[in-house]
Each structure stands twice: as structure tokens, then as C-alpha cells.
């Protein structure tokens, strides 16, 4: 598969994701947990889940912050220390999977990652926001 590339707002951090051809284009998972709300400054986060070794930084390296997750085990959040863009999260009990914020993908590639797959922590969806699309809503983590 053609690599997916992305960057933070100031471009000091850039990354590429090399998924094997056997891997389907990842679907988007929206997360409504309180931790994601605060970390993104928004009502939910928009993510893709990829095998951790497939992401490499081609410029700079993010700062990380460990915080408790809504379900307990800490989450490692990686972000740009210069502009603050959230880039990835990683669950401490699932280090093999990297969760990438889809808003950081470069334009053309964000169009390739266009299918919504699931909403998680749907029980914490902000009241003004209805279900997004016709996908499964899960109360907790998947
Ligand atoms: Zn930046
Ligand atoms: Zn979350």
C-alpha cells in the first residue's frame, strides 16, 4: 500500500505509515472518552488503529505524556511540543497497536482513510452530538 503520511500543525514532526499490502485501509474509530476530549480540545477524537511498528517519524520526534485512561491502564499520548498537535496514543496494555489521530494525515491521504468504522465510549458522547453515521456504537473500548 502507498504509505500514509502526516504531520503536526507546525510540520516540525512528520511521519509515515507503511502498511503491508495485506492490510486493508484502516477504518476510522471515533472516541468520546473524557481523556480524548481534553487532549484534543474537542468533543471526540478521530483515529485509526495500526500495528505500532508500521509508523516511523521522518522528521522530529514527539513529546509524550502518560495519563490515566477512562478504563484504567495508562495511555501514552504523543504530541508536538512546539505546536501541541496530538499525534498518537498507545494503550500501555496493548503496545502493539498505535492509535493515530486522523486529523494529522496529509490531505490526499486523509481522503483515502474515509470510512467510519466504529464509535467507542459512545456513552460519553456529548449531548448535542447524535450518532455519527450508521456504525456500531460501543459503550467502552473495543
Ligand atoms: Zn508541531
Ligand atoms: Zn479516547
From TrEMBL:
GO terms for molecular function: carbon-sulfur lyase activity; metal ion binding. Keywords: Lyase, Metal-binding, Zinc. The keyword DNA damage does not apply. Residues 4-122 form the CENP-V/GFA domain. The keyword Cytoplasm does not apply. SUPFAM superfamilies: Mss4-like. Belongs to the Gfa family. This is CENP-V/GFA domain-containing protein. The lineage of its organism: Eukaryota, Fungi, Dikarya, Ascomycota, Pezizomycotina.
Amino acid at each position: 500500500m502507498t504509505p500514509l503520511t502526516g504531520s503536526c500543525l507546525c510540520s516540525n514532526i512528520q511521519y509515515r505509515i507503511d502498511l503491508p499490502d495485506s492490510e486493508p485501509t484502516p477504518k476510522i474509530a471515533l472516541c468520546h472518552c473524557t481523556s480524548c476530549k481534553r487532549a484534543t480540545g474537542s468533543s471526540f477524537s478521530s483515529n485509526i488503529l495500526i500495528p505500532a511498528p508500521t509508523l516511523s517519524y521522518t522528521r522530529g520526534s514527539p513529546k509524550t505524556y502518560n495519563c490515566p485512561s477512562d478504563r484504567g491502564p495508562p495511555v501514552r499520548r504523543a504530541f508536538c511540543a512546539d505546536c501541541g498537535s496530538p499525534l498518537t496514543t498507545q494503550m500501555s496494555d496493548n503496545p502493539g497497536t498505535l492509535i493515530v489521530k486522523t486529523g494529522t494525515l496529509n490531505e490526499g491521504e486523509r481522503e483515502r482513510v474515509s470510512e467510519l468504522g466504529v464509535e467507542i465510549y459512545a456513552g460519553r458522547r456529548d449531548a448535542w452530538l447524535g450518532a455519527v453515521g450508521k456504525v456500531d456504537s460501543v459503550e467502552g473500548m473495543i
